[in-house]
Amino acid sequence: MQQKLKQHLWLWLVWLAGFYAVWLYLVIGLGYWPEAKAHWPIAVAMAIGSYAAGSTPMGGGTVGFPVLVLLFEQPATLGRDFSFAVQAIGMTSASIFILARRQPIAWAMLKGAMLGSLIGTPLGIWLIAPYIPGLWIKLVFAVVWASFGLLHLYRLNEIAGHSGMTEFNEKWDFNVGCWLGLGAGAAVAAVTGVGIDMVLYTALVLLCRTDLKIAIPTSVIIMAFTSVLGVIVKNLSTGMQPGVFENWLAAAPVVALGAPLGVYIVALIGRKPTLLVVAFLCVLQFFWTLYSERASLGLSGMLLSTLAVGICLLGFEHLRRWGAKLVGYRSENAAVERHVVNDTNTVTSQTSGVK
User: Fold this and answer.
1) Any long-range contacts for 263-267 (C-beta under 8 Å, 24+ apart)?
2) For this UniProt entry, which segments traverse the membrane (predicted)?
3) Helix (H, G, I), strand (E, B) or coil at 164
4) Residue 131: Cβ-neighbour burial (10 angstroms; 0-12, 13-18, 19+)
5) How many angstroms separate the CA atoms of 129 and 136, rounded?
């Protein structure tokens, strides 16, 4: 097995060498080192963010967005575009590492999500994101991530206890993934720069009862795909926000190694400790957002934001119950099929005996 891993990890090493060659050309050959050096704080923050990106279903923007927007008080649009840009390196690096290690992936649902994202993300960038005010971008991020964190704080043992994956049929998985990718790409990723990975992951663990060893690598790959797509679409049409490139120069060499490191380390120490820490940070950033925007939101705005978190949690619970019903139906059908097969075998053996 180790020999097989070594035969494929060279692909990741080639990618890594190519990326660092390009980065060195930018900072040394084209003289961008002063810009990269001046933005060292985001590189420090992304050392943590990239580890979370590779070891959890939360993209690197989960740390990059609140650090830039809440801590450094940069525009939410900058946080969104930076998330796309930095994940295009970190999550891609982690994805190549995952594929090189031949980790199990929920391929049918992933392929559907990629097709949905291919359509939904550009549509969201062109038709939705430009009309979302900066405050709303912050709140969408805060609400979605807080509800996701709370889900893990009270359902982690159940989620971590899943083994394998409940596969209904490839066509069903593909169609579900397609609709999820379309909706999350347009309404979440295009607005915040992150989130489609969390949506797909949630469907896998709540609807399909998928093992974390399958669900998290699958979520990493869809975020890498969507981030690269987002960078391409924005550069060819709307353009990236000022300041993204300078922050990217500082953070990119960190996340290129940090995200795959998260993939590797979490396989040694388990996923539950990391998920608990990141879930706590997701909830913390929600209260941080409400506090920093209290003047704009007022009491009514803060209450509505809290209500939105509750609605998301109800949606998660509905998805969980739906998944339980689907698993039950599948088990019943499998039992009926086994019974039919056994009856057929019995009749066949009796017929053979008569002859």
Assistant:
1) 263/54, 263/55, 263/94, 263/97, 263/98, 263/101, 263/217, 263/220, 264/54, 264/97, 265/51, 265/55, 266/54, 266/55, 266/56
2) 12-33, 39-72, 84-100, 106-128, 135-154, 174-207, 214-236, 248-267, 274-291, 297-316
3) coil
4) exposed
5) 10
Q: At what angle do helices 76-100 and 40-55 cross, to 10 degrees?
A: 50
How far apart, in whole angstroms, are the C-alpha atoms of residue 189 and residue 187? 6
Task: Judge contact between 68 and 78, C-beta under 8 A.
Answer: yes
CA–CA gap between residue 99 and residue 217 (Å, rounded): 9
Both tokens of 250, joined, read 């500082």
313 to 153, 193, 197, 207, 316: CA distances (angstroms): 12, 22, 17, 14, 5
Looking at residue 324, its pLDDT comes to 83
Cβ atoms < 10 Å from Cβ of 164:
12
3-state secondary structure 284-320: HHHHHHHHHCHHHHHHHHHHHHHHHHHHHHHHHHHHH
**Residue 4 pLDDT greater than 70, yes or no:** no
Q: Which residues contact 79 (CB under 8 A, 6 or more apart)?
A: 61, 64, 65, 66, 68, 69, 137, 141, 192, 193
Contacts of 256 (CB under 8 A, 6+ apart): 16, 19, 20, 89, 90, 93
- Tens of pLDDT, residue by residue over 47-67, are 877 877 777 777 666 778 888
Residue among 145, 131, 138, 141 nearest 74 (CA): 138
Identify the residue whose tokens are 């989960």: 62
CB 265 within 8 A of CB 45: no
**d(Cα 45, Cα 93) in Å, to the nearest integer?**
18
Q: How far apart are CA 177 and CA 180, in angstroms?
A: 5
| 39 pLDDT more than 90 | yes
Kindly tell me if the per-residue pLDDT of 348 is higher than 70.
no
pTM: 0.87
Give, rounded to a whole angstrom, the gap between the first and last alpha carbons of the chain: 51
